Each structure stands twice: as structure tokens, then as C-alpha cells.
Amino acid sequence: MAVLRFLTAGESHGKALVVVVEGLPAGLRVTAEDVAAELRRRRLGFGRGPRMRFEADELVILGGVRHGRTLGSPVALEIGNSEWERKWTEEMSPAPGRPSRVLTQPRPGHADLAGMLKYGFDDARDVLERASARETAARVAAGALAKLLLGHIGVRVLSHVVELGAERAGAATRPTPADLARIDASAVRTADPEAEARMVAAVKAAAKEGDSVGGVAEVLAYGVPVGLGSHVHWDRRIDGLLAQALMSIQGVKAVEVGDGWASAGLRGSAAHDAVRADPRATESGGYARTTARAGGVEGGMTVGGLLVLRAAMKPLATLSRPAIETVDTATGEPALSFKERTDTTSVPAMGVVAEAMTALVLAGEALRKFGGDSVAELVRNRDGYLASLGETQSPPQPR
Description:
disordered C terminus; 17 strands; five-stranded antiparallel beta sheet; Chorismate synthase, AroC fold; four-stranded antiparallel beta sheet
């Protein structure tokens, strides 16, 4: 069972999203603004539709926090939909009745048709409202709490876009937490200023034709301690946990850890990370990897230091021009999929969601490894563990 877990509830155009986070230790300093700041980051990125401008996230902390500190009980957050009363109260009402319009042209590439068949629905909205990526706002809110907790043990998580459509960022030095503000200021959340212009142009070209583009976001976690996860069971391996977390993000179709696919074409002598003694590498027990080809994970466990993940998002299947063929489930006749939203891409925002999911996995495994009912106890246990590594392993000093 997960030490740290969360559940979300709510529909895309419903009154609110709700997230309950269970397992946070007591004493974690948190304010509504801490969470709201992360929610604002999720709305960044060139290529988003007008919905991002008028549908605000109205955050309320419902429980689990008193006078700015967690109590050790479940934390409940509500993210209200500012458009609910203006537009959606009747269409998404929980009261008995029928919608004004039944959607019977399921969109290829979405959960619409499979969900309609699975649950016996005749209206695609019964599926799409929950399947919508709007649900990721609740994940980002939960991830904001996980990031605050990780900060107490020296872990920082960030993301940047490395591919958007056919355009790729250059293979420069990976950004660090000090670069996050600069990345967020980028129109497409990339760390490469030269690639930014090309990526924006690719989004504009797709938008002009009513089409969409996908891409890849890289997630980096700095200061990760050695030994999170385990080799002893398949469901304890941290690379598996991280892959599942990132693959669960709407629209993500592939996940890499480290060099991933590229390493499959290499010989073993060129695919692995050499090890050297480094007394300064306290988070990895006095040992350091000279490269990050394995992405900071070996044998289902973190090796300490930098964690490298990538998530690939498909192009959005809902287009400004309804060009994808489908079938009208009410008549059986050929049809064109309906338009629900008009984003050209949401890859920059997906990176922020990927940060949140990565932080939730790392925070959960840190709590499993170090334990503690309070933040102070967690930090003491973590410090004691890292100190003990030097005592028990005694890595040789480099000559």
C-alpha cells in the first residue's frame, strides 16, 4: 500500500475538482498561495485555447491544514470552476434530468467510445468530462504539497520541453532549479532560447491549419537520495512507479528513464554510468556517476543525485476543424468528431503535470524509506540515514 496517496474527484465542466492527499506528515508549512502558484504554472504555454484565459482555478483548502501547517490528517483541496454558474449548471447538474444536447460522435484518440461501451452510456459527455485533462489541475495541487515536503530533504523537481512537433531543443547542459523561472518565462517552457522560436512557429503553423502538435517534456529531480524504491518486488521498483505515474497523464503515450530508447542501440561498454568516489556526494553515499545514462535509477532504486525522465505526449485529437472520421453511435452513420476545446498543444503544461506526478512518487518513497509522523522527524531520519552511509560504506578517497 502506498505511504502517500491521493484521490481526485470532479468533472471538467463540473462545479469543482476535489483532491484528498493522505499520508503527509504533520508540520509541513503550506498556504493556499503555495498551491495556487503551481496551478498557475499549469496554465502556461503558447498554443493553449481561450479556456485558459477565462476558466480560473479557485482554490480552497478544506481540511488537514491549520494556521498554515499540516496536521498529519488527510489534506482536502477544492479547485472551483469559475465558469460553472455562468454556463454549466444545467448541463452538468447532479440532479435528475436529461442534458440539452446528447453527444453521440465520439472523438478518436479520446476515452469517449471505449467509455461509452464499457459503462453503457449513450452520451459521450458522461465519459469525456472525467477523462478530460482538466483533472490534472487536481494532480498539480497534490503535487504542490509533495514538492513542499521534498524541499525539506533537499529534493527539487523541474521540467522543460525538449521536443514540440518536429522541433527539438539543443543538447546543451541540462537546466537546474535556478533556471526554472527562465523556463516558465519561455513561451513554450523550453530551456533553449533558439529552439523556442522554432517551436512557436511550429505551433502557429499547426493552428493555422486547425491542427495540433505533440511533444516531449523532460523532468529532472535534483538531490534525490540513494535507495528510494527497491529491487525485491516488481511493484516496489521506483522506475516502474515513475513510469506508471507519467503514463497516467492524459495524452502521454511513452515514457523514458535516462537514455531509454537510445541505449537499446548501444553496446554495454557505452550504455552505463561509470562510478567514482566523491566524498561531496552525500546524497549518494560518497559515490558519484560520471553520466546520467540510466537516469538516476539502477535495479529499481535511485542511485542518488540527478533523476532524468521524459514523457511523450501525442498531438491533441480534438481539432479546430473536425477532420477525424468517426461514427454517430445513435444512427450508426459516418460522422466527424465534435470540437470540445481548441488547444493546439498542451505539452508545456504537461511538463508541469509530470513534475507533480514525479514529486508525488518521490515523496511517497521518501516517506516509506525514512518514515516520520512529522516533518522534523522525517528530516532527522533522512539525515541519520545519509550519515550512516559514510560510516558503514567508507568509500575510499580518490587519489
